[in-house]
Amino acid sequence: MTDQTSSEYKELAWQGLWKNNPGLVQLLGLCPLLAVTSTVTNALGLGLATLLVLVSSNATVSFIRLWVPKEIRIPIFVLIIAAFVTCVQLLMNAFTYGLYQSLGIFLPLIVTNCVIIGRAEAYASKNPIKQASFDGLMMGTGFMLVLLILGVIRELLGQGTLFDGADLLLGDWAASLRIEVFHFDSKFLLAILPPGAFFAMGFIIAAKNAIDSKIAARKPKVENKTIERVRVNFDAQ
Amino acid sequence: MLNSVSKNAKVLALFAIISTAIVGMVNEATKGRIAAQEQAQLLKVLHSIIPPKLHNNDIYQDCKIIADPLLGKEKQTAYLAKYNDKPIAVALTATAPDGYNGNINLIVAINVNGSISGVRVLKHQETPGLGDKVEMRKSPWISSFSGKPLPDENDSQWAVSKDGGMFDQFTGATITPRAVVKAVKKVALYFKAHQKTLFNAGESCRPQVDELTQENVESNND
Known about the structure:
heterodimer, A: 11 helices, globular, B: alpha+beta, 5-stranded antiparallel β-sheet, 20% strand
């Protein structure tokens, strides 16, 4: 029993972080993904907000899944998600005021992020709370990691810095986190503007696919060595 | 059939009530802190352009609402800095309508002795990496206004250097600094025209000052 659940959690983590990553594979929530990743701080802020909403909404949807009539489940999911997003927005306005301002419209737009309603409908509404929350955590983390990678690439190319404005998210002490990697007078504008985000995103997806196909290419050979009789299969190919 | 519809409506209503109640509670809990954050942010900006040493009134409360085509289409706010009730400086918000990408909201502090105390950009949508150098966070350009004497109507020096003036433009962006320079000039002209009446009482921007803060202001003035 415990083996089964632990392998289930492993599978959820694998799906959320890599195989079915909401940013790279499902390509959900592209609008905030591309719009706010001009700096690492913005990316981290939006990633954390999305993660928080995703975990809470998955847990709540799973909690109420037995009482909600099938016909009206979608409006109820949307209600729950909107309520959580508004709460997160209010909390960020109160505690991370500067970041709240620099994220602007993309914070309330988390409501329309398809990752959240997608996970509520596809997973949380059919599974117990623990698994649903874990699924939210993994999907949210996967999404946040993509945001972060994009943020690092774009801030590095566009400004030559990392963690610029981290004090907006983490408080005044974090101003010292800012790293000036290299300095140039005229910035590489393309990286900061939305087209740069599309290019960077394309390269990241390509890299993921390349890694996947490399793994896939390696796997059969390993199996050939361990199990001799698979050769029959090999001939058939 | 009708039964299930009414049941669904009830469930939906129940969820609407619960979520609204939760949002309401969070709003109630964070309201004070959000207002405090906004005030702190504004005070930080005000103190960066009017040194806090120079005045001893509560500049956040001592403000009035003004409207003038020189300051832009919208209603603007004037924050009055006084030392023992003597006018020291005033910070005026203004809108530059001709930014590269829409309005640029500014706050301009002017000393009563006739010089610019400081300028900051409050809000803008200029191109990141080019026009956004008007932000203090990105470039010190905006501080080149500090200490400059107020310009006249036909001051040819009060322009970006591309137009033969004394303010640099940025590489690749002339429109944004030009809009800012022009807006600051208009604010200066407004100040010159209204200097005498500006410190008189007017429509306050904080209509409901509760007694506690009022007392604070009075004790500050002592």
